[in-house]
Design goal:
about 200 residues, alpha/beta, 5 helices, Rossmann fold, about 35% helix, globular
Length: about 200
């Protein structure tokens, strides 16, 4: 089976990682998912893998406090990273998260891409820009995914995507528009991810 034809529906939870030494063996290529708290990251992953509740969706920011690993058909790990932003947790805990995420992103040799989930409805937030700038600086491949497209008209989608593209310095072919509600953009996302897994 080639990486281009991964069946994302065959998936199981592996483990939650709170310390870098708890990482699973680097047996498969990995796709990590990052985004601000409550941006719809968990919903996006659930739609990608055709599950309603594989990744727990929470209305409370900062719910994900570990790196959560999922095995896709013994060929790929999906890694759900803690959300950044206005999580209501202590500064100490936020610093620990940041250290864990930074260590993982900088040192994991099997990491192929970081999917950066961004809300299409809003202008680019400072933390999203910081993350993308940092990934560029470190030479870590990333894929912006503009989510919640179903909340906008087609014209609004195009206008907002144009503004986000300009702010991030990416071309339309370097990002994906997505709706976790309707599934629009899912095939585009799978195709884009395949490009990182070749």
């Amino acid at each position: 089976m080639t990486n281009l034809h991964i069946n994302y529906s065959i998936i199981e939870f592996v483990k939650s990682v709170f310390k870098i030494e708890q990482l699973p063996e680097a047996d498969f290529p990995e796709i990590a998912f990052a985004g601000r708290s409550n941006v719809g990251k968990s919903s996006l992953i659930n739609k990608l893998v055709n599950r309603n509740k594989l990744v727990k969706v929470s209305g409370r920011p900062g719910k994900t406090q570990s790196l959560n690993f999922f095995n896709v058909n013994d060929s790929l790990y999906l890694v759900d990273l803690p959300g950044y932003g206005f999580a209501r947790v202590s500064k100490k805990l936020q610093d620990e998260w940041l250290e864990l995420i930074t260590n993982y992103l900088e040192t994991r040799e099997t990491l192929r891409c970081v999917v950066v989930v961004i809300d299409l409805r809003h202008e680019l937030k400072g933390q999203d820009r910081e993350l993308v700038d940092w990934l560029r600086l470190k030479g870590i491949p990333f894929l912006p995914v503009y989510t919640k497209r179903d909340k906008l008209t087609r014209g609004q989608q195009n206008q907002q995507a144009f503004l986000l593209d300009a702010a991030l310095g990416v071309a339309p072919g370097e990002r994906v528009l997505f709706s976790a509600k309707s599934g629009e953009g899912k095939e585009d996302l799978i195709t884009a991810l395949a490009g990182f897994l070749c």
